[in-house]
Amino acid sequence: MGTIFHFERNMSKQCSVPLCSGTAAGYGNLCDRHKAIRRRHGHPEQSGITVQELAPYRKRVKHRMDKNKGNPAWGILGQRWEMIIAAAKVDESEIRNGRTFITYQREALHELTKLANEVPVDSLIETSLAMFLMQEEQPRRFKSDAAFDTQLARRARALTETNAGTYWDDKTKRVKRVYRDVSPRTLAVMAQHMKAAFGVAGLYVARLEQQEQQQADSERAALTNALENLK
Ligand SMILES: [Zn+2]
């Protein structure tokens, strides 16, 4: 009897991701490949949001920011971010003085101060709001909340120069950028701070975009209707 039990426990099972023929390793339900994807992207079926994909959203956010240059909102968002960074810098100095932090917390502090040192805050705001807008308009592009958070933090990290290593890709004859990965928990902490600083504004901008779209649609419908009634 004992051998049968032993045998069953070691039976391999299929990866739980639909259409994947990989074998789930250990006690989890995922194959090694999907485990790696979950680690990197926050969900086994999430693919990375690319610069190109985010570009139209960034453009719309930038347009909105330019149109409202005098509005104090941007300054307030900047201040909120500064407060987070100031707290991170205090924690970092405590690390130098010997205070211990859990590894991912230390890594998150380092990533946050790096963002502050290398990325203009307006650029970070633009990227963050673009991500919130994309989430509102394409909710299915994100497989879970954790997947969204991971993508938010990844796009922020990609704004820094020092996170990017480059290599020559012979296939495409182009220089490619690669980013050193940080732990999933580090990305989660970064996302938490970004959402605390910019989340409310992101939702506002997304709603505003939605209202303007509806307005434009109904104006177009009214015109079509009027034209159809021309004699
Ligand atoms: Zn799999």
Q: How many helical stretches?
A: 8
Alpha-carbon distance between the two ends: 89 Å
Number of domains: 1
* Residue share in helix: 55-70%
Please tell me what the overall shape is.
globular
Give the names of the bound compounds. Answer: zinc ion
Average pLDDT score: 90
Strand content: 5-15%
Unreliable stretches:
none
Order of secondary-structure elements: HEEHHHHHHEEH
Q: Helix/strand/pairing class, anyone?
A: mainly alpha
Compute the number of strand runs.
4
Largest sheet: 2 strands, antiparallel
Give the neighbour order of strands across the main sheet: 1-2
Could you please describe the fold and organization of this structure?
The structure is a single chain. 65% of the residues lie in helices and 7% in strands. It is mainly alpha-helical and 231 residues long. The chain has one domain.
Question: How would you describe this structure in keywords?
Answer:
8 helices; mainly alpha; two-stranded antiparallel ribbon; 231 residues; binds zinc ion
